[in-house]
C-alpha cells in the first residue's frame, strides 16, 4: 500500500474496510434485528478468522473486550448463542460472494503477473477433507464411523511464491472429485494440475476437445497403449511416450512421462503439454505441491479444522470466511511488498490488531538489526561431568534393557 494508506486507523478496522460488507444488507434477514445485522455478522466472522478466535464464547469475549467494537461491528457485546443461530441462518451465497470480492482484490494486484515463468498460467485443482465430531453432522457420514466435508479448490498460481484460491466448492465427504471437476476447469488459457483422484478418460477427452492443457498423475493400474516412444536423457526420466489410455481407448492420445523423484518414488504423468521437455513435465507436476501447502496453511493458521456448526449452511459459511481471511492476509502481504511470508504477515496482523495501521506498517517493514556476531563456536573442551536430570526425573541409561530397574540419578 502507498503512503496514503498509512493512518491511525486500527489494523483490524483497516483490513475489514477492504471489503464491501455494507453491500450485503438484507431487509428480509435483518427484519426486527436491532444490532447484529447481516453486514455486522459477516464482519465479526471475518475478524474471528483473522484473529483465530476459536469458539463462539471466545468471539463473544473478544467483541466485548475491544474498545472500538461498537464502531467496528455495530455492537458493544453479543452472545455466542446468537452468533451461532445467525451464522447457521446466513445464506451461504452471501459468504461465497464476500470471498469472491476478496478474490477480485487479489486479481487486481496480481494482474501483471503471468504465473509460472516456465509454464505460464497454472491452476492446481485438489480437494481436502474436514472431519466432524463422531456424534455430530450425521448428514455428512461417509462410512459408519467417519463423517466429513470436502473443500474442492482451484488454486491460481500467480507466481512461484504466490498462489490463491479463486473458486471453492464445499461438499459432503461422499462427493467424488470427478463429480465437480468440470466446474473448476473453465479457463482455456491455463494449465491444470490434478492428482490421481481426477483420472477420468471421458473428461480428459473432453478437455482435449476444448484444447485445455492439463497434467494428471495416473496409477500403474491404468492401461497404456504406446504409440510412439521418445528419447529420454538422464536417470530420473524413465519414459517419455505418446500413448492412448484405457482398456477402452481414449479418443485422443496423450503424452506419458514417467520419472523418479529425489527419494526414488515413481510418478506417471499423463499430459497434453507436448511443448515441454520430459524434465520440464516432471518439474511442472511438482508445482502441484503448492495446493498441499495451501491446505496445510489454512488448517494450521485459520479457524477451520474445528468446525463450529453441525449444520451444512454454518459449515459452508465458516469455510468461505476462512478463505476470505486468507485472501486478505495475502493481499496485505502483496500490496505492502514485504519480504515476510503470508503467515508472518497474518501473525503481525493479529499482534497489531488493536494498534494503529502506522504501527503495523513500521513493524512489517522493519529491517532486522543484528548487533552481535551470533553464537560463536566454543574452543574450550567439553565438561567431563555428566549432566543428568538434577534429581527430578527417572532416567535409564541408553542401552539398558527394559527389564532392568531405572536408576534415579541425583
From TrEMBL:
Under the heading SUPFAM superfamilies, the entry gives:
Ribonuclease H-like
Q: What family classification does the UniProt entry report for this protein?
A: Belongs to the transposase 11 family.
Its ancestry begins with: Bacteria, Bacillati, Bacillota, Bacilli, Bacillales
Name this polypeptide is given: IS4 transposase
Please indicate if the UniProt record lists Glycoprotein as a keyword: no
* Residue span, Transposase IS4-like domain: 124-328
**NCBIfam families recorded:** transpos_IS4_1
The UniProt keyword set, sorted, is: DNA recombination, DNA-binding, Transposition
Please give the superkingdom of this protein's source. Answer: Bacteria
